[in-house]
Design goal:
Elements (H helix, E strand, L loop, with lengths): L8 H25 L1 H28 L3 H21 L1 H36 L7 H30 L2 H29 L4 H37 L5 H11 L5 H16 L1 H21 L5 H5 L3 H44 L1
């Protein structure tokens, strides 16, 4: 039953807030109960959104039918994925394993340096106990790396490496490419009255396309620029570091987090090396994000960076990684729809 139109706006917002919270809680509970199925659907939808861009480009530029364009794009995508899996992925795995072997040596070297500092401080009469800090740092990093190494095979064999999971992911991606637009349109038009469903569809499609396109370009450019930059800075494992930071750049603020993470790890080998890498990569990252068109994500979605960060945190809480990659365009869509619904009310007043 719709609410009376004469209710004050603060009262409507106050009544809506507990309903929104309840719906989010129900969604999070359902997602955790059916996480495997939901993650496959979300991943297939994201891949379909990415592939839909070249499909539409082939339709417009070459005049191909949608079926032919989908077949061509999917074939090229599978060939590219196979090429990456056969060349780049083994290289990254080998470099990652080598990195986990040298990291304990860096921790030991840092521990020796801290022990030397403690000895000098004790000689000067300043008591500094760093043994517990060193042991805690070593134990924490070792546990994190062991957990990561154990989770990688489980992730590959469980969610993506399983033949049936890959098959259903492929089928769902094709389904979304062919019928996804009509399916979402029918759902929105049946849920929302009047022309609101078509408006929501247009806003949702625009925000998701802008987000996917921006983050893909940003991630690719970060990998292409940061990898040779790290090599010029004589950083250890430049390919592993550059590709990892670039992949993290697909997530809002992920590139900054990746730069900070690898800089801290390189500080274990050499403090000045890590500091130099951090300073240079931060400058390069900011130049890329402010000069590269399309520019900052906030300009594409109309969201404040604080709102973007909050949306990412909420998405991570509700649906882990898949919530992170879908939270920003959903938040931008909600904002656009709320602004559109507020304009008629303000104009009539």
């Amino acid at each position: 039953m719709p609410l009376p139109s004469g209710l004050p706006r603060p009262l409507v917002l106050g009544l809506s807030f507990p309903l929104v919270v309840l719906n989010l809680w129900v969604f999070a509970s359902l997602y955790r109960a059916f996480e495997g199925i939901a993650s496959t659907f979300i991943l297939a939808g994201v891949i379909a959104l990415i592939l839909n861009l070249p499909v539409r480009l082939l339709q417009r530029r070459l005049g191909l039918g949608r079926s032919w364009a989908i077949g061509l794009v999917v074939g090229l995508f599978l060939a590219l994925a196979g090429l990456i899996a056969a060349t780049l992925l083994p290289l990254l795995v080998v470099r990652f394993l080598a990195f986990t072997q040298v990291l304990p040596e860096w921790i030991s070297a840092t521990a020796q340096q801290l022990d030397a500092v403690r000895g000098r401080a004790s000689y000067l009469g300043v008591p500094i106990e760093v043994s517990e800090i060193i042991e805690g740092l070593a134990a924490g990093l070792t546990a994190q790396l062991e957990g990561l190494l154990l989770n990688i095979p489980a992730f590959i064999t469980g969610s993506l490496g399983n033949f049936f999971s890959l098959f259903f992911l492929f089928v769902l991606t094709i389904f979304f490419l062919i019928y996804g637009g009509d399916f979402v349109r029918n759902c929105l038009t049946s849920w929302l009255p009047g022309d609101n469903g078509l408006k929501a569809l247009a806003v949702l499609r625009r925000n998701f396309n802008s987000y996917i396109f921006n983050q893909l370009i940003l991630s690719a450019v970060l990998m292409a620029v940061l990898t040779p930059t790290l090599w010029l800075l004589r950083a250890p494992f430049p390919i592993l570091s550059g590709v990892s930071i670039g992949l993290m750049g697909f997530i809002p603020f992920g590139a900054i987090l990746g730069i900070l993470l690898f800089s801290v790890l390189f500080m274990l080998k050499s403090f000045w090396l890590g500091l130099r890498i951090f300073a240079v990569l931060i400058v390069v990252d900011q130049v890329i994000e402010n000069v590269l068109p399309p520019r900052l994500l906030g300009k594409l979605t109309g969201l404040n960076p604080i709102v973007i960060l909050f949306s990412v945190m909420v998405g991570a809480t509700l649906a882990s990684f898949y919530g992170v990659i879908t939270a920003v365009p959903i938040a931008a869509t909600v904002k656009s729809l709320l602004l559109d619904s507020a304009e008629p009310a303000s104009s009539s007043a």
